[in-house]
Amino acid sequence: MRDKYYDHYMLLSKENLIKLIEKKDLEIKNMKCILEEIRELKDKYYTFNKFHMEEITRLDKIIGTYRKQYKLTI
Fold first, then answer.
1. Cα three-residue angle 36-37-39, rounded to 5 degrees
2. What DSSP character marks residue 71?
3. Which of 15, 6, 2 is nearest to 23 (CA)?
4. What does the domain layout of the chain look like in residue ranges?
5. What's the pTM?
């Protein structure tokens, strides 16, 4: 099924078409590398976030015990 948006490719020579395909292939490889970096950063962010949430929970428990001991109200 041909699309009118791709008709201009029919006008290209074989060499130009090969160059265009190689260029697009390089773009795809670069995007894959960037995507992998983004995934690594996402995992790092989630790890940091989990650590901070655990620390907040731990500190909340400590504060709760101090409140009970000294009957402080905030």
1. 65
2. T
3. 15
4. 12-70
5. 0.61
